[in-house]
Amino acid sequence: MDTTRLDKPRTPAVQGGRMPLREHLRELRNRLAKVLLLVFLGTAVGWHLHPWIITELTGPSCHLPGLHGIAPATPACPNGLMVMQGVMTPLTFTFKVALAAGVVISSPFWSYQLWAFAAPGLHRHEKRYALGFVAAAVPLFLSGAGLAYWVFPQALRILLGFTPGAFSNSLQGDQFLDFFIRMILVFGISFEMPLLLVLLNFTGVVSAGSLLARWRTLVMLIFVFSALATPTGDPLTMMVLAVPMTALFALSLAVIVWRDRVRARRAGQAALSPDEASPLDLTPSRTEVPARSGD
């Protein structure tokens, strides 16, 4: 019986890339607690900044020309589109704004906590790839969110432009915020899809050949997804989402093609390694018998 293991104390450290289930769950609990604390601190900062954040959220929509709501015109909202109803609505609206801001403000820190939880189970090359994907995911999401922030007032102008002249319109504060956050999430997550294709290629799930054979179908699916996923549903918002997604898809496809070519080149070099003897061809070949002179 091997008693060497009995003499060693049990530690929660990772041994050979593995961790006991109990320690794994404890690590997950600790990481989630840190994530909640970070989001809480970010929400506190968001609560302090909520007047400026609300002005930035509603400003582009409140200054749309040719639109008039039922609320009285104010310097912050000249067209009177924004209204609130109910005693608790201002508090819940402010809390939602602070919470959304807290998630965004603390995103680098809680992203690191999630990365630190997953990193011990990865190999060295997988850590390098995963860290690169995380670094690329943040600017892609922010680019999609910025595009949504730009197109959102234009989409409202198109949709509210169908209001008959005999009517006025209004935007409930909580509905406006939910609508805006959904728009941000749709655009931000959509900009991550090309990165997901590259990740699937790096893990060997999809190849460049399969994507090149179906690129027309995939582009059509991008436009269908854009039409269904955008909260507004108008053609302008659909095109604003579909065109950058198509460009990102083309860029990811170029990366995948380059990656597969490099992989094939390395495989060919490994097959023709100078340190390895080439296999002998022992197949008997047919020889010609020379004709005798004088025959």
Automatic annotation (TrEMBL):
Record keyword Transferase present: no
Keyword Cell wall biogenesis/degradation: no
One CC-aspect GO term: TAT protein transport complex
Membrane topology classification: Multi-pass membrane protein
Cell compartments where the protein resides: Cell membrane; Membrane
Top-level taxon of the source organism: Bacteria
GO biological process: intracellular protein transmembrane transport; protein transport by the Tat complex
InterPro entries, per database record: TatC
Chief site of localization: membrane
Membrane spanning residue stretches: 32-50, 97-117, 129-152, 179-200, 212-230, 236-258
Positions of the UniProt region annotated as Disordered: 273-295
UniProt-recorded Gene Ontology molecular function terms: proton motive force dependent protein transmembrane transporter activity
Keywords of this entry: Cell membrane, Membrane, Protein transport, Translocation, Transmembrane, Transmembrane helix, Transport
Subunit structure: The Tat system comprises two distinct complexes: a TatABC complex, containing multiple copies of TatA, TatB and TatC subunits, and a separate TatA complex, containing only TatA subunits. Substrates initially bind to the TatABC complex, which probably triggers association of the separate TatA complex to form the active translocon.
Described purpose of this protein according to its UniProt entry: Part of the twin-arginine translocation (Tat) system that transports large folded proteins containing a characteristic twin-arginine motif in their signal peptide across membranes. Together with TatB, TatC is part of a receptor directly interacting with Tat signal peptides.
Family: Belongs to the TatC family.
Protein name per Swiss-Prot or TrEMBL: Sec-independent protein translocase protein TatC
Species, as recorded: Streptomyces griseochromogenes
Gene name, Swiss-Prot/TrEMBL: tatC
